[in-house]
């Protein structure tokens, strides 16, 4: 089985990028990188505090640099990258993903996302801070997902559902399509 060297997971907040990324990296014996976790560790503060103290533009620059650093690093077997929800909004990041990764958009129904995000009390989402009720959160999720759809579409090679499929099925579907994608890339390179 020949797999892509880099597999990137993109999608809205709460779709399961970190959970799927850890499981997929374990299955493939790849390194695992979570861009938000790396940014928080490097900055020495939470994503929420980066947004408050430095602003969203500064955070977006950190995202791009973090993605470049991951892609520039040596990964003997390969790596799985769980990208922050807004990372594909930048054309530069879309190009980095397209040129260097097999990119999977994880998708999930809005009501499931709202439930997941409300239960995740330890992870404050700065872009959802102004949606205190379930109904407002649902509305905000719908609006944000619609605005981000074209960006996610431009960056991704496939989509897979994390609310319908089991984690094992998500991993299996990514692995199957990643192998097919890599085979196609190799055939294109040889022609």
Automatic annotation (TrEMBL):
Single GO molecular function: ATP binding
Q: What biological process terms from GO does the record include? A: amino acid biosynthetic process; aromatic amino acid family biosynthetic process; chorismate biosynthetic process
Q: Which GO terms describe its cellular component?
A: cytosol
CDD domains, alphabetized: SK
- Residues that hold substrate according to the record: 36, 60, 85, 148
Binding residues for Mg(2+), per the UniProt record? 18
Fill in the subunit field for this protein: Monomer.
UniProt family annotation: Belongs to the shikimate kinase family.
* Role noted for this protein: Catalyzes the specific phosphorylation of the 3-hydroxyl group of shikimic acid using ATP as a cosubstrate.
Question: Which protein are we looking at?
Answer: Shikimate kinase
